[in-house]
Write a structure and sequence with these properties.
Helix content is 26%, strand content 20%. By secondary structure, the chain is an alpha/beta fold. It has one domain: Rossmann fold (3-Layer(aba) Sandwich). The termini are far apart. 36% of the residues are buried. Its EC number is 6.3.3.2.
Length: 204
């Protein structure tokens, strides 16, 4: 690791710690209301009608994507969840009656009997984000390697899901870091490189 890469890693770890502390400090009531709010902004995602969408099973104090996923299901989208595998994440289709098993990193997903698919859209968890669409993950690189592999087979839309409290002023990103298309929080959809949210809670 070069000196510059090392300093960036230290800076990211500092921002990750601060953002996760703010996230953990949110009340349970706020967390529930914010997670439900995501579903109200489903149309702002502007997804193709036949897009296969990958969500995630929430862990720890993450925002809960399940209300949003349920709304996407009602609109006809095929849904899938990530499974930690080598050399990168794989994605298995899930339904309302799916049985779930441990899928790595504390998450759950359907078992090996479920259909494996290539998602068109990744709804991604994160530790921190900035308004240019840069994200800080949990440091394991699972999504980084998955995105690199998925982009070899076609277009991929990456949208981070987070609480607004996880925003930082600037993520120290490198040239090879993949920017998000946008970040959806309880305040609405923030498109990468825009300085204001497309939809804000105080404008509804």
């Amino acid at each position: 690791m070069t000196s510059n890469s090392s300093s960036l890693a230290v800076a990211k770890q500092f921002l990750r710690k601060q953002a996760l502390e703010r996230r953990s400090a949110l009340t349970d009531a706020f967390r529930i209301e914010a997670s439900l709010k995501l579903a109200e902004f489903v149309e702002t995602l502007d997804l193709a009608p036949d897009a296969v969408v990958a969500g995630f099973w929430p862990i720890q104090s993450e925002i809960d994507p399940r209300p949003l996923l349920d709304e996407l299901r009602k609109r006809g989208h095929k849904l899938c969840l990530p499974v930690v595998a080598e050399p990168h994440l794989i994605f298995r289709v899930f339904h309302r009656d799916s049985s779930f098993v441990p899928a790595g990193f504390g998450t759950l997903a359907p078992g090996p009997e479920a259909e494996e698919v290539r998602p068109d859209v990744l709804l991604m968890p994160l530790a921190a984000f900035d308004r240019s669409g840069n994200r800080i993950g949990y440091g394991k690189g699972h999504y980084d390697t998955a995105i690199a592999a998925l982009e070899k087979s076609g277009p991929l839309t990456c949208i981070g899901l987070a609480f607004a409290a996880q925003e930082v002023e600037c993520v120290p990103a490198e040239d090879h870091d993949k920017k998000l298309t946008g970040i959806l929080s309880e305040q609405g959809l923030l498109a990468a490189d825009q300085q204001v949210s497309i939809i804000r809670e105080d404008a509804t």
